[in-house]
Amino acid sequence: MVQSLSRKVFVKEQETLLSRKEYDLLLYFLSNIDVALTKVSIAEHLWGDHMDSADSLDMVYSHIKNLRRKLIEKGSRDYIRSIYGIGYKFGEV
After folding, report:
1. 39, 47, 83, 87: most buried, per Cβ within 10 A?
2. Residue 60, Cβ neighbours under 10 Å: how many?
3. How crowded is residue 67: how many other Cβ atoms within 10 Å of its Cβ?
4. pLDDT of residue 57
5. Coil, strand or helix at 58
6. What is the pLDDT of residues 25-81, one digit of tens each?
7. φ and ψ of 17, to 5 deg
8. What is the rounded distance in angstroms from the CA atom of residue 74 to the CA atom of residue 50?
9. Helical H segments across 2-82, by residue range
């Protein structure tokens, strides 16, 4: 469950602390369930115009890895799927 006004995330009734970018990433995934999202579209959503100055998209991978780890540690299933050559998709398998 995500409480957008308080920016809190709960997994199995346990609060899960996320960084600002991880929280924004989760909301972006939840707004695009079962939609294939490219790393570029994720980066543009998280960093906007500042994305132009980035040398690589490794930071996207890092935030996804951290978000996935934090959710799974609290007992969530892994809803984040890597799509080879495209990016990521959030949803049921």
Report:
1. 87
2. 25
3. 22
4. 81
5. helix
6. 999 999 999 999 999 999 999 988 766 655 678 889 999 999 999 999 999 999 999
7. -80, 125
8. 32
9. 20-31, 39-47, 58-73
Phi, psi angle pair for 6, to nearest 5°: -95, -5
Q: Which two tokens stand for residue 25?
A: 């990433």
Kindly list the distances between the CA atom of residue 6 and the CA atoms of 1, 19, 32, 34, 86, in Å, as whole numbers in the listed order: 12, 13, 21, 26, 32
Rounded to the nearest 5 percent, the helix, strand and coil shares of the chain are 45, 20, 35
Instruction: Catalogue all structural domains in the chain, each as residue range(s) with its CATH number.
Output: 2-90 (1.10.10.10)
Q: What is the Cα–Cα distance from 39 to 49, expressed in whole angstroms?
A: 15
Handedness of CA 40, 42, 48, 51 (dihedral sign): negative
Cβ–Cβ < 8 Å for 42, 88: yes
The per-residue pLDDT for range 21-36, each reduced to its tens digit, is: 999 999 999 999 999 9
